[in-house]
């Protein structure tokens, strides 16, 4: 019977007959073979299950924690290979780097294993044989199309032989050098027996690096060729061979039976997926063609004609329809068999890599053959994978669902699935512990919302939108498209409709429009109003959440402070949101439209009539129409948006809005940024004064507006010849600075004034305005102090407010401009401003909490006073005019100022605030730094040269130790409170106290490090602080690390200076060892880490200058000899008290010294260390026990220093020590 006749008869038979015809071939389905051998199947099934269970127990703990494609056995193989490679290199006498070894390994081909025992089913493939299908495909230059054509031709001649070659090809592709014999292949149910034997024998060997997982170049080429071979083979066979009842059934038989041995299981899974992918493509083509034929047949049936031509066409369409139906049925049956035989089992595989691959492939199948796989029977596997314990599987499921929603014809079939698993998707987007999975969940929520606005719950949507305010770049970038889409759908579109209706009603009524704007600007205004509404609502929600917290702290926070905290929080929220939406919303870069919108009058509830507008003058803001009007909160938020947008433009430049791109935009160069700054400045020249004038009565709005001049290029005023406009702007800023009492607004004004004061092209305007400002500021200080005995007076609230504000205003001003001449004027008072400020410094020692800010400001003013005087002396070193006058003031005021700060730091009968005392200590160190500098060592000023005396340093040491102990206690208290379940108010109060102590502690570390670096304090005073490295706060560790790195400059000077630094190093290590090292194994880690930092610093210092090196004998004597004395003396002390455990702890110090061996490089130093150790051991009556674990660190240290000798071809002779030990025995 011919093939066509056989297919025709088969088409006429019913389903049972068709299955019987398939059973007549030599290859049958797995289910039928299992049904024939019930007894054998039960036994083998139980054995397979036991093997799978044991393998899962061994691999389960590692598979979920890693996404790597290598199993534990593969790692062992790789390790063995590396060891063999290293041994062979040693034999050859060569050494290679790890990178070269890794590169050499990557060029090797995948490992192949074989079984050598006698078998009736299997035969070993000779290594010299290279004519198999595997050898042809594995060739780098393999012509896959020709190989497939030859195999197909062979299949048409002899099915059995061709299929046996294909099965052997699969086995070889799994990394096995065995093949099924010709006689065995024709037996019934051979697949189960062969695979059982193979898997049972191969399980005894380490798993090979089979092609599917191989990372080598050869392995990757082989994997590509194998997959291409199967894909092209199925494509060539799509018309007839896949329907012959042998080809696909044989593949199913072998691929679905593999289940235990991982190389077989993984390879079979990959090959199955490639076959199914091709079958999906064919099935989709057949289905589309069937739909066309069915439609044509329907059209022919509807025609009312009996023409022979139409009847013949109808008959042909019916035959074609039957053929396509049969093909579709067969293909879908194949797909179902593969799905049930492979996918269902592999989607639950112990290997997360295989599970993720299953989900990825199912998505591809659904995309290719959506008519079949959009059934919930298949889609539910995506939902089940959302609960997988491995992050990569959950991530792949989320990405697959997102891809399916990009296909229009598939979306309608996903509604039921999405409703079922919607809650789980929302949970992942909000709470998943893996950030990458969470990001994919957010992206899927965005896709769902874009498809259907009601798909995501309101609660989830609101929480997701709140993520845009977090200071997390990845979360912000991911959630930004969702925020934009929600804003457009929920706020912008309804607002646009309302605006169009309102404007339409105004035109119908004949109302005149007072806003002369184009439709584009009006649409932009609506977008800005939409953004302001969204941000205002969100900020209000955040404020409502923190209201209870603020209420609970009313006793410690006044209303103004609480308002400032709210304002700062709101500013940060707006800044985070704008940065996240910057690339999503182009209107944020349209600063001109936003500025025009903000200059309009939004305060009136109805339109002003023409008379009111006429009497208001040309400078009055134009009223805005009701549909565009902003509320007070929205206008305040939009001003923050305006300031943030300007800042981003000046820092990043104008960026193209492209939310889909994943590449980071290249930063603009400095020239382009400066051009952008100038462009913005030219526009703000006219607009900024109007904004400042309009919102001058709102403190919250002025906080942002007053800082905008800092973003401008002030020189454009000179370029545009607009000195008058610049003077107007300067007067506005000065007016705000003089009139405001809010510290944050004062600071912003001062920074803007500083930026404007530096402009040389407008110096003539500054010279007219700034002297008046200085006079008014100093006058305010005098007015606040008038009629009061500052040193002893009791201030009420009004007095404190007046003095604090005036001193703070002077503090900010004296930071960037010399106000000392104005301060020396007393006018109608007995004392000048400098003396008044000195009285406030005296009051700082009283410890009044309410006067904290005035004390800090007063100390800063006195310090700046002396700094400005010294600056005048440095400008006029010959002391002709300015320098001579300044020198007289310094001689008069220096000791007076030093006395005040020294008293605050060293006196024990006063109790200043911790922050005040810390600030005073920092200023005192800085003053000693200035007056011990070269400025006063030359030019005949040596009488003013002043260094910190030993007594003062001792007093400072007491302060340092005391503050360090307080800081440590506060940190310990904070740690204990975090572990307890206290009330919310108690926690917040405790946190505030700890934060305050933490801040002063960080200042303590910075001040001491700066003073020691400047040679104000000796090196030894850094020891107690640096000894706490790793036990304080991360910021403190960073300062200590920077200080140690800075000392490298002093290591290559004279030997005495090097000796001081090295003594400090070993002192820090000894102090840290005594304080923190105990019997716990990890207690020494921080000390070792610090020793590594010291070793690195010594090495860098020695390599910096080829002509000068760190003195090697100093390293030997000051570090190693001193450290050995410390360790052995401690050990001997504990031994005398019979405390062997503590003796072992003391000997751990040699582990620290081992890290410091690297800077040693002379043999004589090593010999000196050996002799010193022998001497100490003899004097302290210590005996080194070779096998005692307590002496391990000592033995390691000896080996490390002996390595220096070995590299030089030397060896230390200690035979005399051994002889003495033998004589003693």
Automatic annotation (TrEMBL):
Stretches the record annotates as Disordered: 1-128, 301-320, 599-621
Gene Ontology CC: chromatin; cohesin complex; nucleus
PROSITE patterns (alphabetical): SCD
Molecular function GO terms recorded: chromatin binding
Keyword Coiled coil among record annotations: yes
Coiled coil: 964-991
Residue ranges of every copy of the SCD domain listed in the record: 343-428
Compositionally biased intervals (Polar residues): 110-128
Keywords for the protein's UniProt record, in alphabetical order: Coiled coil
InterPro entries listed in its UniProt record: ARM-type_fold (IPR016024), Cohesin_Scc3/SA (IPR039662), HEAT_SCC3-SA (IPR056396), SCD (IPR020839), STAG (IPR013721)
Bias kind Acidic residues: ranges: 52-61
The keyword Coiled coil is annotated on this UniProt entry: yes
Protein name, UniProt field: SCD domain-containing protein
Species per Swiss-Prot/TrEMBL record: Phascolomyces articulosus
């Amino acid at each position: 019977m011919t093939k066509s006749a056989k297919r025709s008869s088969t088409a006429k038979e019913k389903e049972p007959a068709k299955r019987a015809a398939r059973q007549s071939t030599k290859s049958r389905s797995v289910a039928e073979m299992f049904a024939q051998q019930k007894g054998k199947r039960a036994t083998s099934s139980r054995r397979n299950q036991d093997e799978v269970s044991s393998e899962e127990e061994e691999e389960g703990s590692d598979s979920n924690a890693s996404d790597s494609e290598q199993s534990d056995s593969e790692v062992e193989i790789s390790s063995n290979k590396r060891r063999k490679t290293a041994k062979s290199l040693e034999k050859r006498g060569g050494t290679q780097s790890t990178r070269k070894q890794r590169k050499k390994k990557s060029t090797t081909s995948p490992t192949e294993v074989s079984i050598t025992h006698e078998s009736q089913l299997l035969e070993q493939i000779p290594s010299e044989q290279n004519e198999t299908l595997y050898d042809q495909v594995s060739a780098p230059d393999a012509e896959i199309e020709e190989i497939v054509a030859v195999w197909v031709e062979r299949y048409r001649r002899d099915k059995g032989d061709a299929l046996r070659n294909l099965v052997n090809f699969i086995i070889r592709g799994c990394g096995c050098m065995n093949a099924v014999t010709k006689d065995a292949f024709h037996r019934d149910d051979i697949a189960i027996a062969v695979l059982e034997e193979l898997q049972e024998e191969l399980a005894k060997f380490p798993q090979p690096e089979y092609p599917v997982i191989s990372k080598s170049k050869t392995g990757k080429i082989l994997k590509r060729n194998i997959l291409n071979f199967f894909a092209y083979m199925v494509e060539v066979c799509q018309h007839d061979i896949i329907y012959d009842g042998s080809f696909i059934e044989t593949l199913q038989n072998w691929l679905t039976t593999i289940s235990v041995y991982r190389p077989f299981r993984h390879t079979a899974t990959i090959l199955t997926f490639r076959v199914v992918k091709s079958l999906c493509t064919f099935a989709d083509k057949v289905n589309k063609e069937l739909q066309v034929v069915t439609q044509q047949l329907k059209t022919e049936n509807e025609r009312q004609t009996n023409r022979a031509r139409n009847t013949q066409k109808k008959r042909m369409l019916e035959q074609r329809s039957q053929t396509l139906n049969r093909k579709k049925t067969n293909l879908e049956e194949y797909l179902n068999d593969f799905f049930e035989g492979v996918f269902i089992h592999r989607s639950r595989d112990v290997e997360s890599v295989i599970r993720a691959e299953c989900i990825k492939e199912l998505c591809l199948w659904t995309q290719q053959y959506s008519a079949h796989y959009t059934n919930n029977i298949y889609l539910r596997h995506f939902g089940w994978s959302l609960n997988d314990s491995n992050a990569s599987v959950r991530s792949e499921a989320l990405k697959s669902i997102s891809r399916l929603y990009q296909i229009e014809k598939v979306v309608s079939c996903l509604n039921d699935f999405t409703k079922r698993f919607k809650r789980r998707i929302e949970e992942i987007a909000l709470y998943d512990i893996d950030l990458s999975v969470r990001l994919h969940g957010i992206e899927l929520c965005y896709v769902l919302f874009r498809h259907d606005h009601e798909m995501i719950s309101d609660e989830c949507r609101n929480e997701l939108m709140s993520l845009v305010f977090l200071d997390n770049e990845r979360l912000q970038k991911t959630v930004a498209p969702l925020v934009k889409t929600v804003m457009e759908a929920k706020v912008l579109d309804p607002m646009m409709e309302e605006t169009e209706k309102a404007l339409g009603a105004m035109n119908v009524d004949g109302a005149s429009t007072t806003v002369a704007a184009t439709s584009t600007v009006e649409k932009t205004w609506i977008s800005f109003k939409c953004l302001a509404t969204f941000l205002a609502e969100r900020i209000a929600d955040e404020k409502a959440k923190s209201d209870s917290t603020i209420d609970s702290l009313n006793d410690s926070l006044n209303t103004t402070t609480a308002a400032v905290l709210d304002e700062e929080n709101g500013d940060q929220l707006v800044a985070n949101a704008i940065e996240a939406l910057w690339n999503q919303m182009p209107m944020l870069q349209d600063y001109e439209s936003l500025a025009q919108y903000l200059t309009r009058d939004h305060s009136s509830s109805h339109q002003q009539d023409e008379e009111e507008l006429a009497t208001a003058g040309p400078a009055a803001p134009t009223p805005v129409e009701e549909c565009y009007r902003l509320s007070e909160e929205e206008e305040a938020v939009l001003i923050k948006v305006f300031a943030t947008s300007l800042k981003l433009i000046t820092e990043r430049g104008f960026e193209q809005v492209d939310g889909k791109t994943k590449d980071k935009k290249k930063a603009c160069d400095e020239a382009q940024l400066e051009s952008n700054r100038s462009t913005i400045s030219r526009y703000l020249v006219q607009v900024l004064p109007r904004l400042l004038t309009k919102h001058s009565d709102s403190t919250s709005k002025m906080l942002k507006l007053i800082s905008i001049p800092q973003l401008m290029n002030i020189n454009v005023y000179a370029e545009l010849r607009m000195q008058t406009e610049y003077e107007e702007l300067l007067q506005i800023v000065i007016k705000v600075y003089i009139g405001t009492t809010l510290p944050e607004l004062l600071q912003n004004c001062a920074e803007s004034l500083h930026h404007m004061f530096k402009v040389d092209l407008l110096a003539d305007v500054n010279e007219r305005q700034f002297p008046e400002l200085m006079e008014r500021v100093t006058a305010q200080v005098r007015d606040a102090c008038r009629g009061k005995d500052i040193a002893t007076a009791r201030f009420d609230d009004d007095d404190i407010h007046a003095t604090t504000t005036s001193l703070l205003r002077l503090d900010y001003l004296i930071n960037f401009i010399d106000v000392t001449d104005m301060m020396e004027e007393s006018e109608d008072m007995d004392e000048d401003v400098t003396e008044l400020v000195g009285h406030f410094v005296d009051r700082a020692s009283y410890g009044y909490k309410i006067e904290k800010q005035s004390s800090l400001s007063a100390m800063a003013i006195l310090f700046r006073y002396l700094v400005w005087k010294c600056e005048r002396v440095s400008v006029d070193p010959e002391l002709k005019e300015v320098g001579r006058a300044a020198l007289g003031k310094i001689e008069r005021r220096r000791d007076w100022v030093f006395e005040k700060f020294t008293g605050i730091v060293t006196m024990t009968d006063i109790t200043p605030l911790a922050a005040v005392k810390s600030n005073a200590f920092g200023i005192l160190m800085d003053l000693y730094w200035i007056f011990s500098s070269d400025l006063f060592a030359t030019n005949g000023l040596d009488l003013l040269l002043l260094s910190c005396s030993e007594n003062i340093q001792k007093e400072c040491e007491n302060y340092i130790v005391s503050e360090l102990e307080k800081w440590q206690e506060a940190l310990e208290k904070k740690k204990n409170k975090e572990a307890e379940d206290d009330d919310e108010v108690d926690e917040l109060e405790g946190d505030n106290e700890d934060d305050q102590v933490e801040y002063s502690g960080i200042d303590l570390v910075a001040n001491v490090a700066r003073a020691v670096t400047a040679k104000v304090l000796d090196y030894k005073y850094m020891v107690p602080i640096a000894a706490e490295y790793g036990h304080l706060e991360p910021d403190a560790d960073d300062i200590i690390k920077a200080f140690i790195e800075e000392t490298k400059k002093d290591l290559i000077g004279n030997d005495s200076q090097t000796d001081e630094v090295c003594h400090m190093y070993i002192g820090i290590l000894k102090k840290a060892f005594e304080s923190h090292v105990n019997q716990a194994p990890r207690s020494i880690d921080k000390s070792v880490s610090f020793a590594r930092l010291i070793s690195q610093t010594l090495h860098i210092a020695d390599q910096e200058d080829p002509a000068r090196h760190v003195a090697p004998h100093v390293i030997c004597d000051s570090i190693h000899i001193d450290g050995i004395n410390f360790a052995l003396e401690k050990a001997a002390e504990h031994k005398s008290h019979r405390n062997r455990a503590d003796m072992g702890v003391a000997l751990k110090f040699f582990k620290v010294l081992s890290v410091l061996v690297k800077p040693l490089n002379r043999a004589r130093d090593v010999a000196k260390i050996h002799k010193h150790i022998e001497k100490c051991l003899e004097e302290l009556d210590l005996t080194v026990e070779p096998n005692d674990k307590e002496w391990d660190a000592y033995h390691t240290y000896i080996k490390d220093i002996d390595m220096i000798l070995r590299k030089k071809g030397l060896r230390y002779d200690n035979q005399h020590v051994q002889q003495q030990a033998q004589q003693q025995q």
